[in-house]
Design brief:
By secondary structure, the chain is α/β, with parallel strands linked by helices. It has one domain: FAD/NAD(P)-binding domain, CATH 3.50.50. The chain contains three helices and seven strands, in the order E-H-E-E-H-E-H-E-E-E. The strands form three sheets. Strands 1-2-5 form a three-stranded parallel β-sheet. The protein has a two-stranded antiparallel sheet with strand order 3-4. The chain is elongated and about 50 Å long. The two termini are 21 Å apart. It binds flavin-adenine dinucleotide.
Length: 101
């Protein structure tokens, strides 16, 4: 049994998660981790800026949509990852009280 995690629920991450669904074996788990409850289609941002669409027209509710594909969706506060003051690598801090899993 594999526990597959896709980090980042943007254009790449959401498509990656969808592409992985047919690859899963019985008992495998697939999780997608993002920063908020909604996905918005970045290339359509200018439509909102010029008033051709409203923000709700170019966004979807991630937990609902992912649940339909049996993908577990988790959102994590951006503050959970912090850049160290020395060295070059990133580290993960202890989850803050605002972290939502
Ligand atoms: C106006 C505009 C028009 C565009 N038009 C096109 C087009 O026509 N065709 C095309 O191919 N491309 C287009 N692009 C480019 C395309 O939108 C981007 O290449 C694409 O969105 C990049 O996807 P991504 O998943 O790599 O990054 P993103 O979409 O930025 O996704 C990254 C995700 O990771 C999440 N994340 C970041 N840090 C964390 C963390 N610590 N924990 C959890 N989640 C985290 C973010 O919240 C985000 O949801 C356009 C871009 C713009 C701005």
């Amino acid at each position: 049994m594999a526990n597959v995690v896709v980090l980042g629920a943007g254009l790449s991450g959401t498509i990656m998660a969808y592409e992985l669904v047919p690859q899963l074996r019985k008992g495998d788990r697939l999780s997608l981790i993002g920063q908020g409850p909604r996905y918005h289609f970045v290339p359509s941002n200018p439509w909102v800026a010029v008033g051709w669409r409203e923000a709700k027209d170019i966004s979807i509710d991630l937990p609902d949509v992912m649940a339909r594909k049996h993908i577990n969706y988790f959102r994590r506060a951006p503050s959970a990852c912090t850049r160290p003051t020395t060295g070059s690598s990133w580290r993960t801090a202890a989850p803050s009280p605002t972290t939502t899993w």
